[in-house]
Design goal:
alpha/beta, 6-stranded parallel sheet, 4-stranded parallel sheet, 12 helices
């Protein structure tokens, strides 16, 4: 810092303020300091700063995988929100493995992140990882939750989402001609089972259901099964846009007309939905509000590391977005 100060013609204190960003500095001086630091190859020692400030200005995000465009889109929204407070977001993908998920939590805690955001792999079996996180730093579960843990959670109201689908179908679809069928995911995550429950509440326990994974490959496989079973027309409600993309691809590849013969409806409204052609009818999660709520929960610091403060659960209302796959 002394070398930078000499090169820029300012005091060491000015260099410290300019490079830390903690106190206002004249823009012209800040530019001179930055130029001098660049010329000398000087970099702020973030580890040293963290030791002095007892915080790292970092948050870890543990996601089940990065194959699903929904998770990568959530990461992007979170990164933007935390950037507003000069906090860096680091992402760890668990590859749908409980062991890898636990390793990710331990890795982040070992790196002294200030907080953790988790999208749990499993509704019950991820409890060990979530409890470890929540017992050490402020932790918020996003989209999926493990109810038995002491961590906050932020999620969409999945039941309400399926009610919106039901209203759309009641208003726009002749279900005698295009009967409703559900293509979802095995209910081992809260989002999967809540959407399945919501579908059954809305359309009845007798409505056909196919369950697999949150993936385009499963959507394609499920659509192939329906075609092989002789379905000529249907309204296919899916548990996620990524599944809907697979369904849509298989139907169009088979020469089926969408939406004249098959209607396709997704869920999530970010990430994969932008890739659909024709544009996808879907239930959109208000991710902008949800990610701000996560930051506020973490910044509020109202969750004690020892779990002494009750966890808060925030449910956000979704919106139905009309699209050409189900006009």
């Amino acid at each position: 810092m002394a070398d930078v100060a000499h090169r820029a013609g300012v005091s060491v204190a000015t260099v410290s303020r300019a490079l830390s960003g903690t106190r206002p500095v004249d823009p012209a001086l800040a530019e001179r300091v930055a130029a001098a630091a660049e010329e000398l190859g000087y970099r702020v020692n973030l580890v040293g700063r963290a030791l002095r400030q007892t915080r790292t200005s970092t948050v870890g995000l543990v996601v089940p995988d990065l194959d699903n465009p929904f998770f990568s889109a959530l990461a992007q929204h979170l990164a933007r929100v935390f950037a507003e407070t000069d906090t860096d977001l680091f992402v760890f993908a668990a590859d749908s493995s409980l062991d890898t998920e636990l390793r990710g939590v331990r890795s982040f805690l070992g790196r002294q992140v200030d907080a953790l955001v988790m999208i749990p792999v499993h509704e019950r079996d991820s409890a060990r990882a979530v409890d470890l996180a929540a017992g050490t730093v402020p932790t918020v579960q996003l989209d999926r939750c493990v109810p038995s843990t002491g961590a906050h959670f932020v999620a969409v109201n999945n039941h309400r989402g399926m009610e919106l689908v039901g209203r759309h179908v009641a208003d726009r679809v002749d279900t005698q001609r295009q009967p409703v069928v559900y293509v979802g995911a095995t209910p081992d995550s809260s989002s999967a089972h809540e959407r399945l429950d919501g579908f059954r509440r809305t359309f009845g326990a007798d409505a056909p259901v196919l369950l697999g994974s949150f993936s385009t490959s499963w959507g394609s496989e499920a659509a192939g099964r329906l075609l092989d079973e002789g379905w000529e027309r249907a309204t296919i409600v899916t548990a996620a846009d990524v599944i809907a993309l697979g369904v849509l691809s298989r139907l169009l590849h088979a020469g089926r007309a969408v939406p004249q013969d098959f209607r396709v409806i997704g869920f999530d409204g970010i990430g994969a939905s932008t890739l659909a052609h024709p544009p996808l009818a879907t239930v959109r999660q208000p991710v902008e509000e949800m990610t701000v709520a996560i930051r506020d929960l973490i910044d509020g610091g109202d969750e004690a590391p020892d779990g002494g403060t009750p966890a808060r659960g925030l449910r956000f209302a979704p919106a139905f977005v009309e699209g050409e796959t189900s006009p």
